[in-house]
Structure formats: C-alpha cells, structure tokens
Amino acid sequence: MNKEIGTxxxxxxxxxxxxxxxxEGIYAISSxxxxxxxxxxxxxxxxxxxxxxxxxxxxxxxRVISITCIYALLALGFDFLANFVGLVSxxxxxxxxxxxxxxxxxxxxxxxxxxLTIPIATLFGAxxxxxxxxxxxxxxxxxxxxxxxxxxxxxxxxxxxxxxxGGTDGILGVAxxxxxxxxxxxxxxxxxxxxxxxxRLVNEDIGLVFRGVKDNxxxxxxxxxxxxxxxxxxxxxxxxxxxxxGAYLSHIYxxxxxxxxxxxxxxxxxxxxxxxxxxxxxxxxxGCFFLVPISEFLRAFGTLRIVFYSIILLTFxxxxxxxxxxxxxxxxxxxxxxxxx
Amino acid sequence: xxxxxxxxxxxxxxxxxGVQALVNVSFxxxxxxxxxxxxxxxxxxxxxxxxxxxxxxxxxGKVLYRGKExxxxxxxxxxxxxxxxxxxxxxPYYSLPAYKNLxxxxxxxxxxxxxxxRGGGKLGDRETVSIDILEEIGFERDSFxxxxxxxxxxxxxxxxxxxxxxxxxxxxxxxxxxxxSGLSMSEIASxxxxxxxxxxxxxxxxxxxxxxxxxxxxxxxxxxxxFGAKLTEGTPQDVMQDEKVKEAYLGSEKLLDYTFEA
Amino acid sequence: MDILIxxxxxxxxxxxxxxxxxxxxxxxxxxxxxxxxxxxxxxxxVWWFIHQLHLNxxxxxxxxxxxxxxxxxxxxxxxxxxxxxxxTSEIIATYALGLAILEFLRWRGFKGMTYTLPVFIEGSIHxxxxxxxxxxxxxIAIGIVVVSFMWLFTHYNKTGLALRGMAQDEHAAMMLxxxxxxMAIIAMAIGSILAGLSAIVLLPLGNIVVEAGYNVLILSIAxxxxxxxxxxxxxxxxxxxxxxxxxLTVRYIQSHFHMVVALLAIILTLILRPSGLFGRQKELEERx
Lengths: 341, 262, 288
Fold this sequence. Notes:
The complex is a heterotrimer. In chain A, 70% of the residues lie in helices and 5% in strands. Chain A contains 14 helices and four strands. In chain A, helix 3 packs antiparallel against helix 10, helix 3 packs across helix 11 (264-276) and helix 7 crosses helix 8. Chain B is an alpha/beta fold. Chain B has helices at 45-52, 75-80, 98-101, 103-106, 109-115, 126-137, 155-168, 185-200, 212-218, 236-241, 243-249, 253-261, and strands at 5-16, 19-30, 34-38, 60-65, 68-69, 83-85, 173-177, 204-208, 221-226, 229-234. Chain C has a domain at 2-108 and 130-209. In chain C, helix 3 (57-83) packs antiparallel against helix 4 and helix 10 (232-252) crosses helix 11. The longest helix of chain C has 27 residues, at 2-28. Chain C is globular. In chain C, 50% of the residues are buried. Classes of the chains: A mainly alpha, B alpha/beta, C mainly alpha. The A-C interface holds A 82, 88, 135-136, 138-143, 145-147, 150-151, 153-154, 157-158, 160-161, 267, 270-271, 274, 301-304, 306-307, 310-311, 313-314, 317-319, 321 and C 31, 79, 82-83, 86-89, 91-93, 96-97, 99-100, 103-104, 106-107, 218, 221, 225, 254, 256-257, 259-260, 263-264, 266-267, 270-272, 274, 286-288.
C-alpha cells in the first residue's frame, strides 16, 4: 500500500459531446435533444435581447441599452475585421463619427427623417471610410492599426481647428426617434441581424476568402484573387456597421459632435472583444453588454471608470486572452469528469 | 508535343539592394513540356518564379505569355491567366480544413468563369469540386484527411495541397517551386507519377528542383542558373555532360553522385 | 530668425520625447504605448517629491528617474512578457496600462495650473534679437547630450551593442548568448528613463497636464514612423522636420494645427512611403 493513499491522484478528463464529434460544420440532427442542444443557446440570446427593453424599467437604463447596442455593432465589426480578415482596426470612433455627422447633416440641412438618414448615412459613411482607408490597406498589422487609430484623432482636431461642421459645439437639434420602443427595438433587431449575418458570412465561400486573407495573403494572391478588393469589401462591411451605429447615435442624442470621434468608441469595442472572446462574434456582443453597463454604474466616479475598464482589459489580455466565450463554448461542447490516474 | 512557346522570359534582371539575384536571364517554355530549372542554392531560381508570377517586380526585362506581355502585372492578374505557382515554403490557410483551402482559388474569377457561379458548374458546388481535386492529387476521398485542418497535415500532404491550389484554377502553366524538397523517398516516388499525369493532361510545368534524379526523369528540357545568370539549357543528358555545370556544382556532391549514377 | 530658433527648440523637444519610444521599439519591437503616461508620471512624481516630501530639486529628479527605470522594467517583467510576440496584444496591453495611469491621475485631480516644476536656471538671453529663456537653451543642450550619449552607448558599449544586435536579428542574437528578455528589460528601463528625462527637461516650460500624455505618445509615434525604425539619423531628422513644420503652421496658419501636423505626418508617411522617409528595405518588408 502506498503512503499517498490519502491523496488519490486524479485528472480531469475532457470528452467532446457526441454531436460535436459528428458534426463539424454539417449538422445531422437525430433527436429533439440534439436540436435543442444547437438551437437553445441561440434562442436564449435572441429572446434575451428582445426582452431586455421590456424588463428594464428606468428610462436612463433603457438609453444605456441603446448605447450598448451601438458599441456592440462596433465590436462586431472589430472582431470581424481582426479575427476573420486579419486587419486590426482601432478606428471605431472614425466610423461612428463619419456616420454620425453624415446623419446629422442629412437631417438638418436636407430635412430627411431618420428612416432615410440612417440607411443613407450607413451606405455613404461606409463608402467614405473605405475610400479613406483604401491606401492604408497594404500595411501590415500594427501599422494599419496605427493609421486607423490616428484618423479619428486627426479629423476631430481638423474639425476643431477649422471650426467647420459646427466646430466644438457640434450639430445641434437633430431629429430624435418617435418613441423609446422604436428606438430600442430597431437597434436590437439590427444587432441580431448583424450578428447572425456575419456568422453566416464568414462560413460562406466569400467568408473563406476573408479567412484566407488573414491566414496567408500571398497564397490568396497566388489563387488569383485581389487582396485589396477583399480587404476593402471587409472594411466596407465593418465601417458600414460602425456608420450605422454613428447615425443611430446622432438621432438618439439628437446631436452630433466631435466627441463622436473620441477614443471611447475605439477602445470599448476592443475591450469587449478581448473579454468576450475574439473570433466568436457572439463574445464581443456579450462583452459589450457586460462592460458598458458596468461603465455606466461607475459614471459617478468620473474618469475612474476608464481606469477600471483599462485594468479589466489588461487583466484579460494577460491572463485569459482567449476570452469568456471561447472558454464557455469549450465547456458547453465537452463533458468533464474526474478519473483516477 | 507542340513546339510554340507558351511562356517567354526576355532579359530578366533583378537586384535586391546591391545583390544581383538575376542577370539578363532569357528562356522560353514550350507548350506541354516539363521545363526544369536547376542551380545551386541562392542562384536566383525562386526569384525567377517570383518575377514571372508578379510577386516581385523586375528591374528590367519582359515576360510574355502566348506572345502577350505580362511583365510586372499583379500576381492575381497573372494567376487568372492560368499561370499558377506553388510556394517553396508551403502557404496553406492553416485555420481552414484542407478541402476549404481550395474554396479560395475556386472563388477566383478564372475558376468562376470556367465553373459557373456555384464554382463547379454541373459538377456541384465548390466543396464537391474541391474534394474531387483533392482526390485527383492524392488525398484519399473516403478518409478524414481532406477534412483535417491544414495545420495538422504532414508535409507531404501540404505539398500536394499547394499543387491542388494550382489545379483549382484550371491552369495552363504550373510553376513548381521545389515540390520534392522535404519529402521522403517514398513520398517523392508517389509524386512523380502525379507530375507525369499533369503533363499528360496538357499542363505545362516549370519545375525548380534540387532532386535532380527525379527531375531528369520527368523533364523535357533543363536550364541551369548560377549566381543569377543562365549557364546553359538543353535536354537533361546534354546538361549533365556540360563542363560548366559540373564546375558550378563542384563541391556539392549531389550532382556528382547523380551524374555518375546516370 | 525666431522661427529658426524656436524650430530648433521644438525639434529637440520632439527628439527628446521620442527617443525613448523609438529606442524601445527599434530594439525590442515592443511598442510602448504607455510612453506618454510615463512622461506624465515623472512630472507628477518630481512635483510630489518636492512639494510633499520636501526633497530638494536635484534629489527629486534623481529619485524620479530611478523610479521610472523600475517602472519600465516592471512593465516588461510583469505585463509585456506575457504577450510578447503578439503585436496587437502588446499595443493593447501597453495602451490600456497608459490609459489606466493617465485617467487615474486625472481622477485624483491632477490638473490645472497648480502643478508646475521649477526651471533649472532662471532668466533669458537674446540671440540675434530673439528673446529666449535659458530653460529652452537647456532643452537643446540636454537634447544634444542625450542623443550623443545614446549614440555612443549603442555603438561602443557592450550592452548597447547587444541591444543593436537584438534589433537586427533576435534569433541570431539569442544564439550568440544574448538574453532576449534581459535585453528587453534593459531597453524598457532605458526607454522609460528617457521618457522621464524628457519630462523633467520639458515640463518646467509649462504646466503638468494629463493631456500631455496623449500628445507625447502621438508625437513619439510620429517621429518613430516618419524616421523609420532603428535609424538614429532618421529619427532625429524626422524630429526636425515635424518640429519645423509645427512651428511654421502655428505661425502662419493656426495654433490648433499643432497636433494635426503630427497626426497627418503619421498617416501620410504610412500611406505614401511605408518604410519611413529614411527607412530601408527591411522596414518596407515589415510594414507592407
């Protein structure tokens, strides 16, 4: 008999669930249990999002939900660009600002209603952002990131210096939404569509091209595809999401100003992606719904909230860089049990 | 075999910051042949392929494809003409399964034009076509190999995957950059028939190779490069007898051995 | 004439600010986005030593610089070492750290006119009819001293040579027995001390404000990108170009464009000439 009988050595055994083993991408569903295994997490997410405005009573927190959704759009765009196309874009604020100003100008000077300004601002905002970023597309990782980070700062300071577009005051008196319900449900539906649309896209053939660009751009060129074209399509999609968020933001606050180019819009989506788990698309969304409300709770502490989410970001990137969602997915798809060694 | 040139390189030169990688190299490749390019390490073989396929801009010189100038066009344009290449250091999409690797070339304008919007025309969608191509190139259809992530495939399969990417483009010419290097003898033995089959299918092959014995088995003509300049060109037998070639390789036992064996 | 003199002063300020950032990035490929925060902490550190601990000025400066060296080494030892090699994570981690530091200082109320450092030597002189205070002369003098010291250090000192070896080929350097992590710690420590030094020299010219942290970071990136990596001459010429263009725009266009110049310099350089104005093939391959 061994002395160490008191401490039986065990190890944790991890086994993939049956359905996971059988279905890598192709679903062969055989029972209701398995259907629910696949559908339930998605259904919970959708229903949860849809119920959110109804269960939250205060007007203030309802507004927070709308803002969170806008951050979520940016985070989706960031995750898509960074983890599926390989372009790390730190220019969330750039997309928001362009979309926001465009919607405000369309509304104020041409008198268009939000129903028209938002789609137009989304489309043309995306076109403007893509055109401005086009020359930067050949740059590699860090350098592309630096250019995208500098764009919003430069534009904000140019607007300030030239005193155009309302200068530091911004454009006031932009039309709002008729009711809070419309304001919230439209944006929630948009993020649901954006989420599932992007998830679909990255598994389509064109999505595989994007992922090819990330893995090995030279091989994509050798395959007869222009990487600039596909990178610009991807930037168009991501900046479209951002511009949509910006346009929405202008109509929510009934105002558009240089604070839309502020770094918050660049940093929170990144923090949400790191925390939620890059490359999952759902992760960044949940990350936003975790981070933005917490940051609102801490509003009373002034800039301390920025310190707070910087530290969360730092902790995650150092110790759990895979993020919550990747961890959760792994746990969901696996059995775990202790076995004696 | 038809004798008209499909690919002509005229006076190609390229230097990298003072180092002359290519000095006025001219040659032509005839349709349907296997054209070998050999030479010691650093003699500019890979640079030549990079120049032809547009990955590196030439300093001077011309590349003609069926008489049409394609000098310094972007790589994707050249690939769409049917001039495809493999990479010496394999460049698969590591995060995608082997068969999804081929969806990228199947998505190219050339493959779409030839295969219809679903990628394969009557043959089915792109996934079906890509598994067909993989089978042709030596991935067993009924095994799990085509479905494995490229990052988990062994070298032999990755080399085949490189060739498969070229085939997905329905190529006229394949420029192979050392497809035999890093493979075991048995793997090479199984690759040789594949090369012969490609030639029988009417594809012109340009092969850079260090494995001279295997190359001389399949090649119709061979060109020798040394220090970026063309040394000689001719049938494998002629090249092996050439004194200049022996001199260039002197010290590298490989060619001496093979020469005496042959 | 005054444009020339103030241009030179401004250029040396930029060179001083950027030298730490450029050094660390050129050597260990570690983008230290907390550079601006380190600059600001030094300012407040010295202020705190003087006004709360009642130390004398020289001693405060000395302590602040030692503290900076420790913080720099600490950042590498505890933060960067975990994300080494993942360029984006490095940027995000150091930037988050810098943001946390700066916003913490702002929250504690370190802002306004109350925070100033005394100048080294009072008074001003006239050069060719232009009045210039002695502190600005000090900027030029210390700028020259620091740049030449760093040049000598990296060309004639064993550690300095090892650092340059790392910059050129990390793996080859490791094979020759250079400890990559130790060198990176040294580089971070030196870079942080240089950030602190530039703060000590430059801050007496104005107030200590948190915003300076962001501006210093942007200016350092601008100098680093325009100059090309690891190229000393390039970085200094870049500092002069940006410095003079800044002075000229402020003079002839508008003072608001002060930072726009740096931002546009970054964007335009990367787009038009990705290797930097004085960069070589290696940088081009890395960036494009």
